[in-house]
Write a structure and sequence with these properties.
172 residues, mainly alpha, 10 helices, 62% helix
């Protein structure tokens, strides 16, 4: 944020009011800011519509803050209906994400994966496989629970992007 004057937020608010910009346009402007909690607080202070528009457009890479920042971003992606972005965001930092949260990501991503009908791209498969690899190296998820999730994802991870994935939630 140091590259901007301290009153730049007021300038943007005035421009929004004067031009009557749509939330999507404002979000696009705010996407140019650094990836940080400070930015996300500013975006949030512009209101719910702009906050949601921002998180629906924000690229899922470059979360450079601490683990709390990463987990915050994951939660925002999920709340905006972008679970695959939530899976992509920590792909280089899976060690910062608790096992239960990784399992949750796999579970909440199933509707989006199913809607894509196998057209999610090879990188999506890669990110999902990375999560399973990470979970297999941990001991805090029961093997049976992990096996159930792996079985549900088998059509995707074995057949790749051409498979139609049917994943169901498992009861606790």
């Amino acid at each position: 944020m140091a590259r901007f004057r301290t009153d730049w937020i007021d300038d943007i608010r005035a421009m929004i009011s004067d031009k009557k910009l749509e939330p999507e346009r404002v979000a696009q402007l705010l996407l140019a800011l650094d990836e940080s909690k400070e930015t996300w607080a500013i975006v949030h202070n512009f209101g719910e519509l702009i906050d949601e528009a921002y998180w629906k457009r924000k690229h899922s890479f470059a979360i450079v803050g601490g683990a709390d920042d990463l987990l915050f971003a994951i939660d925002k992606y999920i709340s905006c209906g972008r679970p695959m972005a939530a899976i992509e965001a920590p792909h280089r930092r899976l060690g910062d994400v608790p096992s239960r949260r990784l399992m949750q990501l796999l579970l909440v991503a199933t509707p989006e994966i199913n809607a894509l009908r196998g057209n999610g791209g090879t990188m999506s498969v890669y990110y999902i496989e990375q999560i399973f690899d990470e979970l297999e190296n941990r001991s805090d998820i029961p093997a049976e629970e992990l096996a159930k999730m792996e079985f549900a994802y088998r059509p995707l991870t074995v057949c790749g992007t051409s498979a139609v994935v049917r994943i169901c939630a498992f009861p606790d």
